[in-house]
Design brief:
51% of the residues lie in helices and 14% in strands. With 566 residues, it is an alpha/beta fold. It folds into four domains: 100 residues, Helix Hairpins; 126 residues, 3-Layer(aba) Sandwich (Rossmann fold); 167 residues, Rossmann fold (3-Layer(aba) Sandwich); 117 residues, Regulator of K+ conductance, C-terminal domain (Alpha-Beta Plaits, 2-Layer Sandwich), CATH 3.30.70.1450. The strands form four sheets. The chain has a six-stranded parallel β-sheet, with helices on both faces. α1 packs antiparallel against α5 and α2 runs antiparallel to α4. The longest helix has 30 residues. It is flat and about 115 Å long. The relative contact order is 0.06.
Length: 566
C-alpha cells in the first residue's frame, strides 16, 4: 500500500499543485473584484460563495451567477477562470490516465490484491516458484488432484498465460522475482496453511536462495528444489532441504532399473503415472552389445556412468569434448553425420542415446542412426514440450523430458510420499515379485494406470474407523477392502504398504490389525477409492462391513426394526 501511495503522489504531485493553484487564483480573483448587489450598491463576494461558484463553474454545469448578477469585470474574470480550470483538469486527468496505465503502478496494485488474497487463504496450498515447462506440468497435476497452488514467476507473460489455462482449481499467481524474500512472503511463505515450497526455476542460484529463505523464515515447511548441478545439490542438502530433484540422475537410475529389473521399472511407471494415463508396455533395454551416447552434458554424463556400472561398453560422441570433460576415446562431432556415427560403431551398436540440448540435433541423430542400423534401442532427450508430436513420430523407445521427470517426481512426493518408500523397499525384491504384483494390478485395471492414494487412520481421513478403534473394536485391513454396498464383494484395490510406528510392511495381509495413526498406501480403481472413503468416514457403512447388519436410521426405521424383533 505504501508503494501505491508513493507512486500516486510522485506522479500526481505537479498536476495536484497546478490544480490547487488554478482554483486558488480563480477564487481569489472573485473575492477581490468588486461587484454590485440587487440595489446597485457595491458588494464583494466572500470566500465561501467564491469557492462554491468556482466549483460548479469548473464542471461547466452553469447554475447561474450567485448571489447577484455579475459585473462586466467579474464576468471577464469568470471567463478567464473557466478556460484556465478546464485546461488544468485536462492536464490532471491525462496524468491520471497515464498513471493507471503505468506498468509499475499496475504491478503494485496487483501485488497488493494478490497479498490480500493469500492472507485470506483458508485451504492448504503449495507455493510453486517458477512457472516454466516444469511448473506448468506440476501445477496441472496438483490441481487435477484438487490441491491448491500459489505460483510465482519472474516472467509476466507466463503469469498471464496461467490465468488463461483451464485448471480445475483457481491458482493465484504473482509476477515477481522468487529470489526476493518479500515476494515469497507475499505469496504465503509464512502462512499457516502453506504446506510446502517448490523451487522450479531454471537458475540453480535462484532455487538455492528460495530454499535458504524458506528454511530460515519457515523452518518446519517442506522444501523441494530442482537442481542440475552436484555442487548446488550438496549446498542445498547442507541446510536441510527436504528433497532435491535432479532429472538427469533420476532418469539414469530408472534406466539402470530397466536394465536390471524390467518388471520393477514397469511397476514404477504404472504407479507414478498420471490419472487416466494409458498403461505403458514393458521395455527391455539391451544388455548385450555396445551403446553410443551423443552429447556429454549432465544428461549424457549421467547415462554414460550408469552404463559403465552395468559393464556395458559405451562410446561417447561430443562436439566439444575438451569443455565437457568427455572421457578418452570420445568421437568428436555432433552425431548428426553418418561419418561420426560410423566412427563410433553404429552398425554393431545395440543402443543409442540422443542426449544433446538441441531437439533438432537429437531428431537428426536418431533418423541418421536408424538408416545405418534399424535394430537400435533408442533413448531420445526432448528439451521442449512443443516438440512432443515430432518426438512421437520418431518412435523412440524411451523419450526423456527433464521438465516432465521433475514434475512427476514432485507430484508424487507431494501427493503420495509413501509411494517412494514402497518403491525403495521394492528394490530389494526380485523381478518375479514385481511381475506378480503387475499381474494382480492388471486383474482390476483396464487400459489406464491405477489410482494410488494414501490413508491415515485419524479423525480427519478415517473418522468412523478411528472412533471404532478408540472404543476398543478390532478392525482388520481386509475389512476396509469390503464394498460398503455389498460386503461380500472385495473392492478392486491392493494395499501396497502399511506404516505403523516406524514399521514398514509391503503388501500387508488382509488379517493384519489396524491402529490409530497407521498409514496405508493403496492402489486400485478410482471407484474403489471413493467407496473406501465411505467405510472410513461413515459409521453405518463401517458397521455394515464389520457385522453385515444395516443399522436403522431415523425413528421410523427404528420403529419397524423394533416390530421385527418382537
Amino acid at each position: 500500500m505504501d508503494n501505491i501511495f508513493f507512486l500516486i503522489f510522485r506522479r500526481m504531485r505537479w498536476p495536484l499543485i497546478t490544480l490547487v493553484s488554478a482554483y486558488s487564483i480563480a477564487v481569489l480573483g472573485l473575492v477581490l473584484i468588486p461587484g454590485q448587489d440587487a440595489a446597485g450598491e457595491p458588494w464583494r463576494m466572500d470566500f465561501f460563495h467564491a469557492f462554491y461558484f468556482v466549483s460548479f463553474m469548473s464542471t461547466t454545469i452553469g447554475f447561474g451567477e450567485i448571489p447577484y448578477e455579475f459585473t462586466e469585470g467579474q464576468r471577464l474574470w469568470v471567463t478567464f477562470s473557466l478556460y484556465m480550470t478546464v485546461v488544468v483538469w485536462v492536464y490532471a486527468i491525462g496524468n491520471i490516465l497515464a498513471l493507471v496505465q503505468d506498468h509499475t503502478f499496475q504491478h503494485a496494485v496487483n501485488e497488493l490484491f494478490f497479498a490480500r488474497r493469500i492472507r485470506r487463504q483458508r485451504e492448504p496450498f503449495y507455493l510453486v516458484c517458477g512457472y516454466g515447462q516444469t511448473g506448468t506440468a506440476l501445477v496441472q497435476a496438483l490441481t487435477d488432484r484438487d490441491q491448491n497452488v500459489v505460483a510465482v514467476d519472474i516472467d509476466a507473460q507466463r503469469v498471464n498465460m496461467l490465468k488463461l489455462q483451464n485448471l480445475r482449481q483457481y491458482v493465484p499467481a504473482l509476477h515477481g522475482d522468487a529470489a526476493r524474500p518479500v515476494h515469497l512472503l507475499e505469496a504465503g511463505l509464512k502462512h499457516r496453511k502453506c504446506k510446502g515450497v517448490v523451487a522450479l526455476t531454471n537458475v540453480n542460484e535462484v532455487n538455492l536462495k528460495i530454499a535458504i529463505a524458506a528454511k530460515l523464515l519457515h523452518p518446519d515447511i517442506k522444501v523441494i528444489c530442482r537442481a542440475d548441478s552436484h555442487d548446488v545439490e550438496d549446498n542445498m542438502a547442507s541446510f536441510g532441504t527436504d528433497h532435491i530433484v535432479d532429472p538427469y540422475d533420476k532418469f539414469a537410475r530408472h534406466l539402470s532399473t530397466a536394465l536390471q529389473n524390467p518388471g520393477l521399472h514397469l511397476l514404477h511407471e504404472w504407479l507414478t503415472g498420471m490419472r487416466h494415463q494409458k498403461l505403458e508396455d514393458p521395455i527391455y533395454p539391451p544388455l548385450d552389445g555396445g551403446w553410443i551416447v551423443c552429447g556429454f552434458g549432465r544428461f549424457g554424463g549421467a547415462i554414460y556412468h550408469r552404463l559403465l556400472d552395468e559393464n556395458i561398453e559405451t562410446v561417447v560422441i561430443e562436439a566439444e569434448p575438451e569443455e565437457t570433460g568427455a572421457p578418452e576415446g570420445t568421437v568428436k562431432g555432433r552425431g548428426t553425420e553418418a561419418v561420426t556415427l560410423e566412427e563410433a560403431g553404429i552398425r554393431t551398436a545395440a543402443g543409442l542415446v540422443a542426449g544433446t540440448r538441441n531437439d533438432a540435433n537429437n531428431l537428426s541423430i536418431i533418423m541418421t542412426a536408424r538408416q545405418l542400423n534399424s535394430d537400435l534401442f533408442v533413448i531420445a532427450r526432448q528439451n521442449h514440450l512443443d516438440n512432443t508430436e515430432i518426438f512421437n513420430a520418431v518412435n523412440a523407445d524411451i523419450v526423456m523430458h527433464p521438465s516432465s521427470v521433475i514434475a512427476n517426481r514432485i507430484r508424487v512426493l507431494l501427493g503420495t510420499p509413501l509411494l517412494y518408500e514402497f518403491m525403495s523397499l521394492a528394490l530389494y525384491e526380485d523381478d518375479q515379485w514385481a511381475c506378480e504384483l503387475i499381474s494382480r494390478i492388471i486383474a482390476f485395471v483396464q487400459d489406464e494406470v491405477p489410482e494410488v492414494w494414501e490413508v491415515e487412520i485419524n479423525e480427519e481421513q478415517a473418522l468412523a474407523v478411528t472412533e471404532a478403534l478408540e472404543a476398543g473394536n478390532a478392525i482388520e485391513l481386509g475389512d476396509l477392502l469390503r464394498d460398503h454396498r455389498e460386503r461380500d464383494q472385495i473392492l478392486p484395490c491392493i494395499p501396497l504398504l502399511k506404516l505403523s510406528k516406524g514399521t514398514r510392511v509391503t503388501l500387508p495381509a488382509d488379517d493384519c490389525r489396524l491402529k490409530v495413526g497407521d498409514k496405508l498406501l493403496m492402489c486400485g480403481r478410482l471407484s474403489a477409492r471413493d467407496r473406501m472413503e465411505w467405510t472410513l468416514q461413515n459409521d453405518n457403512a463401517l458397521c455394515y462391513v464389520l457385522t453385515g447388519q444395516v443399522r436403522a436410521q431415523g425413528w421410523v426405521w427404528r420403529l419397524f426394526r423394533r416390530d421385527e424383533t418382537r
